[in-house]
Design a protein that fits this description.
By secondary structure, the chain is α/β, with parallel strands linked by helices. It has helices at residues 102-110, 130-136, 152-162, 181-191, 221-224, 239-245, 256-262, 285-288, 290-303, 309-329; strands at residues 15-17, 20-22, 69-71, 89-95, 117-123, 143-146, 167-170, 176-177, 197-205, 211-215, 235-238, 270-281. The strands form two sheets. Strands 3, 4, 5, 6, 7, 8, 9, 10, 11 and 12 form a ten-stranded mixed β-sheet that branches. It has a two-stranded antiparallel sheet with strand order 1-2.
Length: 330
């Protein structure tokens, strides 16, 4: 299953750059490839023993429940690595029955101007045309698999375990990166030192890609401990962030990303990119499960950020009212 596909040998763009191969110069994910088996990452930071969701690095996941398939450059003997001044960026997309927008999402990743990118797609055993769409791009995707999962954070954790980049981002199956998004992140990264999280601005769009609003402000603990002030789609996470604080807690169904970023508390080392990097489609899982989102957020703030219960309830009510005012307006 993991044999090298000989079609790459005759690709007209094949060339060697610093021990790397470019199999197709048109795409961000096919310009810097190493022709050898990938190596799992050894974590450099000791994680707390009590965490049940520590990061474990693998190259291929063991066959899970109802595995429908896997593929990508990695299964054909290619891997990637970081270079001086050119860190490897891993992007993870998780999807379930996402045929409507997935192709646009994939294209926004492989058409990035930055050329050292790894793309991983985790499918939750889709029953529509999602797998067919992924297979159409599997010579530009590093690794994909399709199998049953236990929700979005279980799928994200699978993606994290498979990612080999220094920095990791999550792009929803109905969201898109702007063309220079990753290059803009890298320009900021090369100027900053000792950071573990980057956020940016994101356009919120409707199903017809009309802009509704711009979300995502600079991370500040005084705001963040009360509400999710950053846009997760517009974020990059250092591998060391997960080494120190663990993977996503799958107990949560909607607010697990908020919970994970609360763990460092005011010690989170952040940078802010004051640009719009992505378009995020309105009506995601937090809107579909709004009551669960509010209750999980209330619990998380109280238990981790130590926000008083009365303040948590107040924040809950304000968010609830804002949500329904927005629904009435729209």
């Amino acid at each position: 299953m993991h044999e090298f596909d000989s079609i790459f040998l005759v690709n007209e763009y094949t060339r060697v750059v610093n021990n790397s191969k470019c199999v197709d110069k048109k795409y961000s994910t096919t310009r810097l490839l190493v022709r050898e088996s990938p190596v799992a990452i050894v974590n450099e930071v000791n994680q707390p023993e009590q965490l049940e969701y520590n990061i474990k690095s693998v190259i291929f996941l063991p066959v899970g429940e109802e595995r429908k398939g896997e593929g990508g450059l990695r299964t054909r003997g290619y891997s990637k690595q970081s270079y001086d001044g050119k860190p490897l960026i891993s992007i993870v997309t998780v999807v379930f029955n996402g045929e409507k927008y997935l192709e646009e999402t994939i294209q926004s990743v492989i058409n990035q101007t930055y050329d050292n990118m790894e793309y991983i797609i985790i499918d939750g055993n889709s029953t529509d045309e999602t797998i067919s769409i992924i297979k159409n791009y599997e010579d530009k995707v590093d690794y994909w698999l399709s199998e049953r999962d236990d929700g979005i954070y279980d799928a994200w954790n699978k993606g994290l375990s498979l990612a080999t980049g220094d920095w990791i981002g999550f792009l929803g199956a109905d969201d898109v990166y702007h063309e220079n998004a990753i290059s803009d992140y890298i320009n900021l990264l090369l100027r900053e030192v000792d950071i573990e999280y980057i956020s940016s601005k994101v356009e919120l769009v409707d199903n017809n890609s009309n802009i509704i609003n711009t979300i995502g402000i600079e991370w500040k603990w005084k705001d963040f401990k009360h509400y999710m002030s950053v846009a997760h789609v517009g974020s990059l996470h250092s591998r060391n962030l997960y080494n120190k604080y663990g993977l996503y807690n799958t107990v949560y169904k909607v607010a697990g990303d908020y919970e994970m970023l609360l763990r460092p508390k005011e010690g989170l080392k952040c940078a802010y990119l004051n640009k719009i990097t992505a378009s995020m489609r309105d009506g995601g899982i937090s809107n579909k499960m709004i009551h669960v989102a509010f209750l999980e957020t209330l619990k998380i703030k109280h238990n981790i950020a130590k926000v008083g219960l009365i303040v948590c309830i107040y924040d809950y009510l304000i968010s609830y009212i804002k949500f329904y005012i927005k629904k009435l307006i729209n």
